[in-house]
Write a structure and sequence with these properties.
Strand order of the largest sheet: 1-6-5-4-7-3-2-8-9
Number of strands: 22
CATH class of the largest domain: Alpha Beta
Shape: elongated
Largest sheet: 9 strands, mixed
Bound molecules: adenosine-5'-diphosphate, magnesium ion
Radius of gyration: 33 Å
Number of domains: 4
Helix content: 25-40%
Strand content: 15-25%
Structural class: alpha+beta
């Protein structure tokens, strides 16, 4: 519908909310709006460059692929014009009136979760185009699409609603006029804008002018030699490229000639956005061929678990006319993927060796991705497993060990690497599973994360050593010279076990004397080998099949423990009371295993027992 009177539109509810916060934000780094608008102009030009490869009929085809910025300190305006793809009427509505930008989306989601107008959050995101409203009284976007048949329009907004009106005689692309708030009039001063541009524009791959003078020489930081690049240049590049506010955590800049020509500049951000509640990250390493952007978010350039990386990969081996849609050269992309992920893993290995604290900090934030990789990325599994870290029965709380270090401490006849899964160190240390291994001087890794069970089951072994759950029903431990003095005899144990099996009935699959108990009277093992106690709890929590299957328990008893010895005596003398004690011992063991489901019954029984004390 073409009209010549302005038509008024309401912003989508989410955008209203976003604008409300952006406009009222006290965020001090308002200058980032310059970066966001430059980045949009540069995106629009890159898109046009791609279209030129396939489209013949492009409007205003002579227009330079450049960005022009002008300031007017009398009118208090900041204007930025690009000759990129531009927007049709429908695109203006879609792109500027509804939520499209992933950063804005993530911002709103985080806001929803924090449940308040936390404008401090803005500092962690690029809110894209809308950042202009931090400094603007009003914003006008004049835009003409590259499609010749479409008319030009002006989109106008003061941040509450917007209008769109047709205008004649526009050039291709977009011109954004920001009418500045009085307190932000500094951005109508050339020197102030120059200062901002000098920091970011060097990384924009299109020419930028400010009031007619060229401000950047197009150069690709990643193609320059490492020792001629200043630390700040790296940092500013990172901030520009990934819309970040904080400095990066780690950086890897490398070049290779064989087997492929690669120049890569990779960054690990400070924070892991998935950890603070954002959805799954999109790939953040852009693919270039000789300084020309091929794809800002290529899907298969890196393995999934490296989705937290930001940066650039440039390969001369890519055909120049390759486009996002026609990235068909699978083999080449796969090769790049292999080379880069191996190189990055080697880098992490060096970090882990040379900068232990820094690596551990990184691991706390991003270790979950390494675990994901170790479990799923077969090609890189060994290297990834080497990078995993766990607390263990021999580390202090909060300190971790690698699997390699664990192996170096193993005794000559230890075959397996043992681990226990639990909510935290205290819970694992208080449970009955650890003591048998501890008393045999076997180190046990402690796993606290819900993915750990899945990871351990998938990794299975490391350097020929099996990863074994210490609460597994099959666990065989070497004989330990236990004090037999005062312990029940073998015959007594046999009799007690048979009696327990009869008395506890369906609830137990097997009862036997334990070789892993030292200080606890009994422990419960899930007889169903395919499902550990931890997995069962998870399935129950997720209401998945399996969580509801009847529990089958192997009960192990400690013939040296006073409670068990007492039970043996009681069983002949006071069978009724002995039955209550037996059931209570089983329930206690189930509690330690995190498997007790009916607490009510247990409480009733306990009262009954207490009556007779
Ligand atoms: P993002 O750039 O991350 O997509 P923005 O909020 O910065 O998010 O921009 C929203 C959308 O508006 C862009 O995706 C693009 O489609 C459109 N847009 C913004 N600025 C321009 C421009 N100068 N030329 C063409 N399209 C633009
Ligand atoms: Mg943008």
């Amino acid at each position: 519908m073409a009209t010549d009177t302005p038509q008024t539109f309401e912003f989508q509810a989410e955008i209203k909310q976003l604008l409300d916060i952006v406009i009222h934000s006290l965020y001090t780094e308002k200058e980032i709006f310059v970066r966001e608008l430059v980045s949009n102009g540069s995106d629009a030009l890159e898109k046009l460059r791609h279209l030129q490869l396939t489209e013949k009929d492009i409007f205003d085809d002579k227009a330079e692929l450049e960005i022009n910025i002008t300031t007017d300190d009398k009118a208090k305006t900041f204007t930025i014009q690009d000759f990129g793809v531009g927007m049709t009427r429908a695109e203006l509505v879609e792109n500027l009136g509804t939520i499209a930008h992933s950063g804005s989306k993530a911002f709103l989601k985080a806001l929803g979760e924090s449940g308040q107008k936390n404008s401090g959050l803005i500092g962690q995101f690029g809110v894209g185009f809308y950042s202009a409203f931090m400094v603007a009284k009003s914003v006008k976007v004049y835009s003409h699409s590259w499609r010749a048949a479409e008319p030009g329009h002006v989109w106008t907004s003061d941040g509450s609603s917007y209008t769109i009106e047709e205008v004649a005689d526009l050039r291709r692309g977009s011109k954004i006029v920001v009418e500045l708030k009085d307190e932000c009039s500094e951005f109508s001063q050339e020197y102030r804008v120059r200062e901002v541009l000098e920091r970011y524009s060097a990384f924009v791959s299109v020419p930028i002018t400010l009031n007619g003078k060229r401000v950047n020489t197009v150069q690709a930081l990643w193609l320059r030699g490492k020792n001629e690049i200043k630390e700040e240049e790296y940092t500013e590049f990172y901030k520009f490229q990934s819309h970040a506010f904080e400095d990066p955590r780690l950086r890897l800049h490398f070049s290779a000639d064989a087997p492929l020509s690669i120049h890569a500049l990779l960054f690990v951000p400070k924070e892991n956005p998935e950890k603070i509640g954002f959805g799954r990250s999109e790939p953040g390493v852009a693919l270039y061929c000789r300084k020309v952007l091929i794809d800002a978010r290529p899907k298969d350039l890196l393995p999934e678990w490296l989705r937290f990386l930001k940066g650039v990969v440039d390969s001369e081996d890519l055909p120049l006319n390759i486009s996002r849609e026609t990235m068909q050269d699978r083999a080449l992309i796969e090769k790049l993927n292999r080379v880069i992920s191996k190189r990055f893993l080697k880098f992490l290995e060096e970090e882990a060796k040379n900068r232990v604290d820094g690596y551990n900090d990184f691991y706390r934030e991003f270790g979950i991705y390494l675990k994901e990789g170790a479990a799923l990325d077969h090609a890189n599994k060994d290297q990834l497993t080497k990078l995993l870290r766990f607390e263990s029965s021999l580390t202090e709380k909060g300190k971790t060990t690698s699997l390699a270090d664990y192996i170096s401490r193993m005794g000559t006849d230890q075959k397996d690497i043992y681990y226990l899964i639990g909510p935290n160190r205290e819970a694992i240390e208080a449970g009955p599973y650890l003591e048998g291994l501890k008393s045999r001087n076997l180190e046990v890794l402690f796993c606290y994360e819900s993915v750990d069970e899945y990871v351990m089951n998938n990794v299975r072994e490391f350097e020929g050593k099996k990863l074994t759950a210490a609460d597994h029903a099959d666990l065989k431990l070497s004989d330990l010279p236990q004090p037999t003095e005062g312990a029940l005899s073998e015959g007594d144990v046999k009799q007690l076990s048979t009696w327990l099996k009869e008395t506890l009935g369906e609830r137990v699959a097997e009862v036997k004397a334990s070789d892993r108990l030292v200080d606890s009277p009994a422990l419960a093992l899930n007889a169903d080998k395919s499902m550990s106690p931890h997995l069962r709890r998870m399935m129950k929590a997720m209401q998945k099949d399996g969580g509801e299957a009847p529990l089958r328990i192997n009960l192990e008893i400690n013939p040296r423990h006073a409670v068990i010895k007492h039970l043996f005596g009681l069983q002949g003398a006071a069978p009724e009371k002995a039955k209550l004690v037996a059931e209570q011992v089983l329930d206690n063991a189930l509690i330690s295993a995190g498997l007790l489901e009916d607490t009510n019954k247990m409480v009733q029984r306990l009262y009954k027992l207490l009556e007779s004390v």
